[in-house]
Amino acid sequence: MKRVLLALMAFLGVACIAAAIALPTYLVPKLKVVPLDLDITSVAETVTPAGETGDRFPARIFDRCSVSERRAAVYDAHLTQQRRSVIVDPSDENQATLQSAQTVRIDRVRDQDGEERDLSMATDGELPCDDALLNATVDRVSVDRKTSVPNGAVSSLQLEAVPEGGNVEDASVKLEDRKGFQYKFGFDVGKRDYYYFDSNTRQDSVAKFVEERKIDGVDTYHFVADVPEKDLSDLPDASGEAALGTILNMPARWWGISGRGVKSRDLVEMHRYAKATRHVYVEPTTGTIIYGYEDQHQYFKSPDQSEESPAAIRDFRMDALNASFKWSDETVQAQADRSKHYLRLLDWGGKYVPIALGVLGVLLLVGWAILVWRGRKGDDTADGNGPDGDGPGGYDPDGNGPDDYPTDPNANEPSYAYSGSTEATTAIPAVSSTDDTTVMPAQQTAQDPYWSQPPADDSATSAWSQSDWSPADRGPAGHDQAGHDHVAPSPADDTDTGSFRPITDPTRPMPDYDRYQRPE
């Protein structure tokens, strides 16, 4: 049982230390991947350019119904941007495909006359010009699960709804050479520049590190990406044409353009341009985006910026969308909780559990070593190989060791060699080199049936004395009053007189010892 316990302790100690080493090197990298159950919902509302909330109409949008009116119109509005990102196929241990559906809703508007009204979304049929849905897209991208970088397997943007029985591919455009982060950064983010993808302009821009900042108890890195101006009419739809609303060719008076070289009825073509500035706050260990803030600006301007074009046309700008979107407090809190959860998993897998296993493994091995050492020390003492002597119990025959055998006060008395059991021990007197006393045969104790009282003869030729075997002097278990072990002698010859007879003939053969042995 002791050997099994020692083997088990050694095995568990080594196993714990091996696990402590393996967890940070094997398990943690397995945790640092894009989870296949990712499901992120973010909500952002328009605020003032300074980031202040409370303004009921902080944004500006183009009135789509004014296309059929005499003059172009722009509304003051309040907008809400919603986005949900989930994992879809194809996804496996190496890649994850994210599908992100985004909508921009017009909550309420205020016209140039100060009239306010709420807009609603149509549920079926053709959308009216004053529908509350301003924009809707579905973005799909496959990323490497370890780096979160797009791998090119899937990269498309769906710009319109898919008819019943239709194919998603027919309503989507492919986005080539996409390489920037968008919904999540990679793991172990550094204080350097990264590419960030903008789906509105379909281009990568550089996100530059700005500062460190704590948000809802989470340490984050602040990155700013300036998205350069892009002509949205250059971005084709699924049919390969310019998307609806990106090119307008209207009379100058409709645009409100007047001046030298411009006639009111002249058709002036304007394109819709877009640019943006995005602020993202990223938890650096997991790459989770905790907070987002962005300034989006879309406007109509003439694509002809040459000197031949009238200045009134070259300098014309009209807002199509001018809004600052800020993530809601609920979204920020949810993202902070998500990152804290990931951080706890990484801490347990890479720090707490390995440390606990390492300490437990060391304790088990130390305990194993102590038990083995004590066991060996006990074995050495039991077999007479103690550390301080050459004999049993540390006895040192040469008298030089620290555990020399103690001096016997009765050293002059004869010593005996014992054999047999402790109950009926037979003894043979030790023979001195100077003693002429005949060696006596093995004797038996008083408890044996063959016991006989020793004779009263105290002759000098005898090896025994009457006093040595007096029953009154016997202590418990055959000890005398001095504490010495003695056993009673048996007759020296094969007579049954019970008397002791001195042996005068030294050539007389020794008696048969087996005769006096206790019956089995």
Can you give me a brief rundown of this structure?
The chain is an alpha+beta fold.
Model description:
The strands form 2 sheets. The chain has a 15-stranded antiparallel sheet that branches. It is built from 4 helices and 17 strands. Residues 388-395, 415-440, 442-452, 455-488 and 490-500 have low confidence and may be disordered. The chain is elongated. It is an alpha+beta fold and 520 residues long. The protein has 2 domains: 32-327, no CATH class; 417-520, no CATH class. It has helices at residues 2-31, 252-255, 311-314, 329-382, and strands spanning 39-47, 59-62, 74-88, 95-110, 116-118, 133-144, 150-158, 172-174, 194-198, 203-215, 218-231, 247-251, 267-282, 289-301, 318-327, 416-419, 426-429. The two termini are 35 Å apart. Helix 1 (2-31) packs antiparallel against helix 4.
List the helices and strands and how they pair.
Elements: H1 2-31, E1 39-47, E2 59-62, E3 74-88, E4 95-110, E5 116-118, E6 133-144, E7 150-158, E8 172-174, E9 194-198, E10 203-215, E11 218-231, E12 247-251, H2 252-255, E13 267-282, E14 289-301, H3 311-314, E15 318-327, H4 329-382, E16 416-419, E17 426-429
Antiparallel strand pairs: 1-3, 1-15, 2-3, 2-15, 3-4, 4-5, 4-6, 6-7, 7-8, 9-10, 10-11, 11-13, 12-13, 13-14, 14-15, 16-17
Helix pairs in contact: 1-4
